[in-house]
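Interim report to the steering committee. The following record documents the input for Ribonuclease P protein component (139 residues).
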Amino acid sequence: MTPPEAPRDTPPAVFSRPDATAPAPGLATLRKRADFLRAARARRQSAGSMMLQARQRRDGEAAGIRVGFTCSKKVGNAVARNRAKRRLREAARIVLPELGRDGWDYVLIGRRDATAARGFDDLLDDLRKALRRIHGTAP
């Protein structure tokens, strides 16, 4: 027996899933090692579940907000590091359009036993607090 055909008058199903690695609109991802190294020489702010590095770019460099993510092997195996980076990526997607500044590079560094285990709302609060301190808008 052959399966029945789909009705011809219905449009084909389109499955659309947002790209999990794409940052929020208005955010670009840091890819080059040199950009990470420049951010490492700039401002740093520790938060409970991450470390935030930030630098203001010079005139003539790329426009917009750029963000990078990293986790060392101290965080754990590849599965643990990728989970921590996914959480940081989502936190940046939510918080940076709100508190990030145009013309700045941000690098979020995951911490062992903290980034993956911390509650997501607390992770968001940590990033907000670190951004306010970096930009001098909080005590």
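The chain is about 30% helix and 20% strand. The committee is asked to note this result when reviewing the revised timeline.
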